[in-house]
Specification:
Elements lengths: L2 E2 L16 H17 L1 H12 L10 H10 L2 H19 L6 E4 L5 E8 L2 E5 L8 H14 L3 E6 L9 H9 L4 E4 L2 H10 L9 E3 L4 H10 L4 E2 L7 E6 L5 H12 L6 E6 L2 H15 L5 H11 L1 E4 L3 H11 L3 E5 L3 H4 L8 E4 L5 H6 L25 E8 L2 H17 L3 H11 L4
Parallel strand pairs: 1-11, 4-5, 4-7, 5-6, 7-8, 9-10, 9-12, 10-11, 12-13
Antiparallel strand pairs: 2-3, 3-14
């Protein structure tokens, strides 16, 4: 891992993969086919892309029962405990409707209403992601969403991964379909014979899923178009170089385009971490992926002091930030931009990925400057409540009319002024 000079334009921002012309055209073609042919198109694409000929898209109770039999008791216990932790954290985010009443009888407020239906896309292929089920669906459940639909690419044996099915069943998801890719996103947005449309789609996926989510945005809402994973570790001389290297590699193994950056004002620690990264890389099962990530997007910045290190972090605005310093809570108020912040030498990033409770769906590519982790607010709508009394209207009508005429909208002005003519 290379130690690089500090620059004024230090940044995590990379060009997001917006796909090739051929990929975009393929997505549009798939979407039009699904909109026209519904389930037939979904089954056809599942056979074409996943190599499985399905007679039905829906997951059955028998498949869920079989999934439980494949999991060990320990694995099931861990899923249950993680579920409880994630739910408990997100319950703290729940909002309530509120109203205020003024002396003149005016009532103002805000009504909180959950979205009716949400689609959760769970990636498939060579890996299984039960954590994606929990992180994307539990905030929606806490928000009060009544209908949650899960879609995921089918495995070669015609089933979904056991951990994914068990996680979904543990939190009460009843609609689960074996379909992935752009076709699944289209089905969620527009509906088919089997899958009724939803109002919002959340969850990560490959470039075809990302392109489809961009295309359906406006017809439905989406969570975000996330870029490759990122981690920044800010450390002082109290940090353990083995821990730091391991945490950097925990993100590098995700993707060749993942970004792992170490920031410290200790030259000695920087050199130790660089050596330790190389040692651990050679022992990592996903060495090729992690090495490509570290070589292309990994960096170590040595600053003059802790204050400059904090400045670097705020300019990076990372998805994940670890504060591996002696007094992390003293540093925390100085951090302005980060998706998730891990404090202290034992708050390793995977703690947040799987178990602690906060959401692991986080802003990437510098967007932590203006956006937040997936949360309960993402699954509710807020309606403004306005009930003006007659007394308040008589008092404010002229002022409102003045403002309306300032904008050249006489109809607006007259709508309130007519009420002044009302006889007592």
């Amino acid at each position: 891992m290379k130690i690089v000079p500090m620059t004024e334009d230090v940044s995590l921002v990379r060009d997001l993969d917006s796909g090739t012309k051929e990929q975009y055209e393929a997505v549009v073609s798939i979407m039009e086919d699904v909109k026209a042919n519904g389930d037939d198109a979904l089954i056809r694409y599942t056979e074409k892309f996943d190599g499985v000929a399905l007679s039905s898209l829906a997951v059955t109770n028998e498949e869920i029962k079989a999934a439980y039999e494949k999991l060990s008791l320990h694995e099931l216990t861990v899923i249950k405990e993680a579920t409880a932790n994630i739910r408990s954290f997100h319950e703290q985010q729940a909002r309530k409707s509120w109203f205020t009443t003024k002396e003149d009888g005016t009532i103002l407020g805000q009504k909180i209403t959950p979205i009716d239906a949400v689609g959760v896309y769970v990636p498939g292929g060579k890996a299984a992601y039960p954590s994606s089920v929990l992180m994307n669906a539990i905030p929606a459940l806490v928000a009060g969403v009544e209908r949650i639909v899960m879609v995921s690419p089918v495995q070669k044996d015609g089933t979904l991964p056991s951990g994914v099915l068990v996680a979904a069943n543990e939190i009460g998801i009843k609609e689960i379909y074996k379909v992935g890719g752009a076709q699944a996103v289209t089905a969620l947005a527009y509906g088919t014979e089997s899958i009724a449309p939803v109002d919002k789609i959340v969850g990560p996926g490959n470039i075809f899923v990302a392109l489809a989510k961009r295309e359906v945005f406006g017809k439905v809402d989406i969570d975000m178009i996330a870029g490759p994973s990122e981690i920044v570790v800010l450390a002082d001389e109290t940090a353990n170089s083995t821990y730091v290297a391991a945490d950097l590699l925990s993100q590098a193994e995700h993707d060749e385009r993942a970004c792992s950056i170490f920031v410290t004002h200790s030259q000695a620690l920087a050199e130790q971490v660089a050596k330790e990264v190389e040692v651990q890389l050679s022992e990592l099962p996903r060495e090729a992926i992690a090495r490509a990530s570290i070589q292309t997007y990994g960096a170590i910045y040595v600053t003059k002091d802790l204050e400059e290190s904090v400045d670097v972090v705020n300019r990076l605005a990372p998805e994940h930030l670890e504060l591996a310093v002696d007094r992390p809570f003293d540093v925390l108020p100085k951090i302005k931009h980060a998706g998730a912040i891990f404090l202290g030498h034992y708050s390793s990033e995977p703690v947040g990925d799987y178990f602690a409770g906060p959401n692991h769906v986080l802003p990437t590519n510098g967007t932590a400057r203006f956006s937040s982790p997936l949360n309960v607010d993402d699954f509710v709508k807020k309606s403004s409540i306005i009930s003006y009394s007659k007394q308040a209207m008589m008092r404010d009508a002229e002022k409102i009319a003045t403002f309306a005429r300032l904008e050249g909208l006489e109809g607006h002005a007259r709508a309130v002024l007519y009420r002044l003519e009302e006889k007592e």
